[in-house]
Amino acid sequence: RSRMEEQADNRAQMLAQIRNALGHSAPVTPEPLPPFDSHIPTKDYAGLVETFSRELEKVGGRVSRARSSEDVRQLLQELYSSEEYATVAVSACEVLDQLGLREWLVSTGRQVVPSLEEFMNSLDQYKHALMKADLGITCADYALADTGTLVLVSGGEQHRLISLLPPVHFCLLDPRRIFASLTDFLAREDETSQPPYAM
Questions:
Q1: CB proximity list for 48: less than 8 A, separation 6 or greater
Q2: Which residues neighbour 118 within 8 Å (Cβ) at sequence distance 6 or greater?
Q3: What CA–CA distance (Å, rounded) separates 19 from 15?
Q4: pTM of the model as a whole
Q5: What CA–CA distance (Å, rounded) separates 6 from 14?
Q6: Cα 69 to Cα 46, 159, 180, distances in angstroms
Q7: Strands 169-172 and 142-144
Q8: Predicted confidence (pLDDT) per residue in 121-171, tens digit
């Protein structure tokens, strides 16, 4: 007999002795869990938005709707005055670039934190600048309705840090990218091999 077989036998004998001492004659096999059902149809966008909004509000978030770049700018102007939120960090994502948010923020008298590349990739200096920022603006790749969670498929350190370090986070999200639950998201998300970052 091999050493591995002897160890397996010893382990089986030890477990049998423990079971006997506890009054169990056979191992207890747990009942299998039922399949998870979020009860939120993924294609019901209005229902997903409503559920996501409700869950996000439970953790202090707020959802507002914007249909154009003008709506986004007006929302930012109403929510965050240039006096209170003088320093803003803007993530490098295509939607924000298309909206021209960096240029618009500068035109309203706000200071925009330079990108990580402009800090010569000095992560410590960049983090320090972000911690002094009043507001961080990003976009989210997805969201989970049942928990009010934003999902960022991390394309870089800058995107993730802007969502975390400034005290206030403003995030743009396409409502068609809201999933009912993590289970639903994982079952359908096959567009990227990068691990998602949830917040």
A1: 40, 42, 145, 175, 178, 179, 180
A2: none
A3: 6
A4: 0.72
A5: 12
A6: 22, 21, 27
A7: unpaired
A8: 788 999 999 999 999 999 998 999 999 999 887 666 788 899 999 999 999
